[in-house]
């Protein structure tokens, strides 16, 4: 089903009654059109049409589920899309730049303002960089700061800031990758293959983004990835195709001595490039 047909199916159900889902220990309430969620999810359809309490009250309780996961699910349910990875990463970079500048205040030595002689030479460079960083809104500092690389102190300072910014963004990406895997587990619970497939695409976008940003054998990066994969292994059935995807993605980023042996054993001749091989079949009668 193409995206246009997909959204047409969604709009079919927008005139139906509203039901409520109470999520997490705080019982945060989410409102959703009854026919839409029943059409999309066999899990919710069973809960709301079984004749039990949920059918009569129009309320479903999910006390063990993270509210952020359901919030993402609701966004997907009505748009059939997850947010843009490139836009998210760009926003995180801007946020990280601002935070790093705020966390690295430049203290002056001496009484004079601006760039008086009482300031040490390295301090003058740092103050100039601070002024450039304060221009983040129009990003003019990015071009002007290139001249500072001619100064050893300026280059070192800029390199330090860049490393801090990269670290913050990388952590954001890894947190999001973990959340996407949690979202996949939720999608499996509510039995929506199309949503699971969308999660794989989103996770792979983040994986490629972090691959470009980090050394392929970065220890901290690899450790965070393994922690997320371990979570998935504990919460998904053995036959689920995301296990194959995760094994393939790990194999192709391992050190050559390990990678070559694993790939030969698994008979994989190319890196993870065709995500459809990891997709579940979508039943268009019940899923969009």
TrEMBL record:
Domain of life: Eukaryota
Record-annotated BTB domain positions: 19-86
Name of the protein in question: BTB domain-containing protein
One Pfam short name: BTB
InterPro entries to which the protein is assigned, alphabetical: BTB/POZ_dom, SKP1/BTB/POZ_sf
């Amino acid at each position: 089903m193409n995206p246009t047909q997909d959204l047409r199916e969604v709009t079919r159900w927008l005139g139906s009654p509203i039901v409520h889902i109470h999520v997490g220990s705080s019982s945060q309430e989410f409102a959703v059109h009854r026919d839409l969620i029943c059409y999309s999810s066999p899990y919710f359809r069973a809960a709301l049409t079984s004749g039990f309490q949920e059918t009569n009250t129009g309320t479903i309780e999910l006390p063990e589920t993270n509210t952020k996961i359901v919030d993402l699910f609701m966004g997907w349910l009505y748009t059939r899309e997850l947010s843009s990875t490139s836009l998210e990463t760009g926003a995180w970079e801007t946020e990280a730049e601002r935070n790093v500048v705020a966390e690295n205040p430049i203290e002056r030595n001496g009484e004079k303002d601006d760039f008086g002689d009482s300031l040490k030479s390295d301090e003058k460079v740092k103050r100039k960089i601070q002024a450039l960083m304060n221009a983040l809104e129009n990003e003019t500092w990015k071009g002007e700061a290139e001249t500072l690389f001619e100064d050893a102190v300026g280059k070192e300072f800029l390199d330090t800031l860049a490393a801090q910014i990269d670290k913050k963004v990388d952590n954001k990406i890894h947190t999001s990758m973990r959340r996407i895997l949690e979202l996949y587990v939720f999608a499996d619970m509510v039995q929506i293959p199309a949503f699971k497939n969308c999660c794989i695409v989103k996770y792979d976008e983040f994986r490629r983004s972090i691959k470009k940003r980090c050394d392929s054998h970065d220890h901290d990066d690899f450790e965070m990835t393994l922690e997320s994969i371990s979570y998935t292994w504990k919460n998904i059935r053995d036959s689920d195709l995301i296990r194959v995807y995760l094994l393939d993605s790990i194999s192709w980023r391992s050190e050559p001595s390990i990678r070559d042996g694993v790939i030969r054993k698994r008979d994989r001749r190319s890196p993870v490039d065709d995500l459809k091989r990891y997709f579940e079949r979508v039943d268009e009668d019940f899923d969009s």
